[in-house]
Design goal:
303 residues; alpha/beta; six-stranded mixed sheet; five-stranded mixed sheet; 12 helices; 11 strands
């Protein structure tokens, strides 16, 4: 009996030892994380490069940023085990969850300085367009961002339909711009009458960041519709990764606001950032998004 007890204690100590916890490093010499195409690739990479360097120091392995021309590119990379982690919106996380049959797990999401943990889809127009309400957009062009975008497609399409503005019949055209910034820029350049995008609050969002970056003029873009609050998307991991790697990534991200404040500010929006910290999340938080996407699929199929 003593021998069995001693062996159990020895196994427990071994399991908790740093050597065992870090054994994933033998398998993963490089860790890749994906970021969605919400903004142009140059700015995406620039924003996350300080985070990439921070992770290399914290994890002790090489880290690479993965980008794609569409949300689905990141989703498929996750499904094919080509990347280990990805920053998703709520809808793209739900798409990845469905695509992998539950093979992704959310780790953390955003906590804003005002205590909120969500954001809003908005319909943006030129302030000088004369469009003040959705009624003014009847028969006009409303650009959605990407089929797997939460705020740029799923939530506005779902809520507009429920509010009596069935996009397929109410608007003259509903093209996909390909990315949030592309849609807003299309409105700014009068290519689209309106575009679906997102804001966190009145100080932070896609239009505000584009002003800061000099892409559009201040007070040139206004919003005429806002959705109910959307749960912020997660940093998610493949569920088939070693627990030690998942735990190490979660800890590193949770600690970055204190350990590397500048990298944290840059990755969360630069000088326009209103994010204060991260919160741990699980799948239950996003189940309603999975169900909403299922509704949208049925609508597209005429079901």
């Amino acid at each position: 009996m003593k021998a069995i007890f001693a062996a159990a204690v020895s196994a427990a100590v071994l399991a908790a030892s740093p050597a065992v916890a870090d054994s994933w490093k033998d398998q993963y010499k490089t860790v890749k994380f994906g970021i969605l195409s919400g903004e142009n690739e140059k700015d995406r990479i620039a924003r996350y490069t300080p985070f990439e360097k921070y992770l290399e120091n914290e994890l002790g392995v090489d880290v690479e940023i993965f980008t794609a021309g569409s949300y689905d590119g990141v989703i498929q990379a996750m499904a094919a085990d080509q990347i280990e982690f990805a920053f998703f919106g709520s809808s793209s996380y739900a798409a990845a969850y469905t695509e992998t049959n539950g093979g992704v797990v959310p780790l953390v999401s955003r906590l804003q300085k005002d205590g909120s943990t969500g954001y809003f889809s908005v319909v943006a127009v030129r302030c000088d367009s004369g469009y003040k309400t959705l009624e003014d957009l009847k028969g006009k062009t409303l650009a959605f961002a990407d089929p797997d975008s939460t705020s740029g497609y799923a939530v506005p399409y779902f809520n507009l339909s429920k509010q009596g503005y069935e996009p397929k019949t109410y608007f003259g055209a509903i093209p996909f711009s390909g990315a949030h910034e592309t849609g807003v820029l299309g409105v700014y350049n009068k290519q689209y009458d309106a575009a679906a995008t997102y804001i966190t609050n009145e100080e932070d969002g896609i239009p505000q960041r584009m002003v800061t970056k000099g892409m559009i003029e201040k007070d040139s873009i206004c919003t005429i519709w806002k959705s109910p609050e959307i749960t912020s998307g997660p940093l998610a991991a493949r569920s088939n990764l070693p627990k030690g790697l998942i735990d190490a990534m979660r800890t590193a991200v949770m600690e970055i606001p204190e350990k590397d404040t500048l990298a944290f500010i840059e990755m969360t929006g630069g000088e326009d950032s209103t994010q204060e910290a991260w919160i741990e999340v699980d799948h239950d938080r996003y189940q309603w998004i999975v169900e909403m996407r299922d509704w949208l699929k049925k609508q597209r199929r005429g079901g």
